[in-house]
Design brief:
single chain; 252 residues; mainly alpha; TorD-like; disordered C terminus
Length: 252
């Protein structure tokens, strides 16, 4: 199935912009501003039923518990110096250590663009999930503006970096005992990841030291069946994805 890539790029930018707000470490009080508005748009124009349910649950959490509770959960998952934290860098999932080969790869990709890390806003390394989704968001925005030379670079960034570790990262969030709102975010991210693989025509990598049972615990399904369902679903929902671009995200 062929996807009209130019038509869905604004929606892809919206998703990556949302994940940027949810995964970039920040002590700004307005870090989650407009997340509720974005979720309203995605609820009306979902990728699939799972992502719609996750958006509804996340919106309910924010409306009832507040942004402070979301920030508190973020800290428990990613920032507590000890305990069951979720690691956030591509290097950790690739080699089991920080500042590894994936960091070098991302820096090399970054050097080929006019985008640079703003150290005031991004305290973590370039291969951290927060920076990576923000990097993708900005690349898509440049492509939308006509700078199509970045199309191949975004493909390489997804295939060689994001695609290689996102399944494990999402599973680690989903299984973490501190995850409530972020469990819904993991479900949403999983649906979007499935769409991105179809967009780029990239296969899911074989798991590293993870059993099929562990993946099933997250409610995810076998690769071939997931691909078949996703293809059928996207045939029905491409127009909905295009509609998702009706709300733009302001760059940080």
């Amino acid at each position: 199935m062929q996807i009209d890539k130019s038509s869905v790029n604004p929606a892809r930018s919206l998703y990556y912009g949302l994940f940027s707000k949810l995964f970039v470490f920040s002590d700004k009080e307005d870090r989650f501003d407009r997340v509720g508005e974005i979720l309203d748009v995605l609820i009306q124009n979902p990728i699939d039923d799972a992502s719609k349910g996750a958006c509804v649950a996340l919106k309910f959490f924010i409306d009832n518990e507040g942004a402070d509770a979301l920030g508190g959960e973020y800290d428990l998952l990613f920032n507590v110096p000890s305990g069951d934290i979720v690691r956030t860098t591509a290097s950790f999932y690739d080699e089991g250590l920080e500042s590894g080969k994936k960091l070098v790869e991302v820096k090399n990709f970054l050097a080929k663009t006019k985008i640079r890390r703003d150290e005031k806003h991004y305290k973590e390394s370039e291969d951290s999930i927060g920076f990576l989704v923000t990097f993708m968001h900005e690349l898509i925005e440049l492509i939308i503006k006509g700078e199509r030379e970045y199309e191949n670079l975004q493909h390489c960034l997804f295939k060689e970096v994001l695609n290689e570790f996102l399944d494990e990262f999402i599973t680690d969030i989903y299984k973490n005992k501190s995850a409530v709102a972020y469990k819904e975010i993991a479900i949403l991210f999983n649906s979007f990841l499935e769409f991105e693989r179809l967009y780029f025509e990239v296969a899911k990598p074989k798991p590293k030291d993870r059993t099929d049972k562990a993946v099933q615990e997250c409610g995810f399904i076998a690769d071939e069946e997931a691909k078949r369902r996703a293809q059928n679903r996207i045939k029905r929902s491409a127009d909905s994805l295009v509609q998702s671009c009706s709300l733009e995200i302001d760059d940080e």
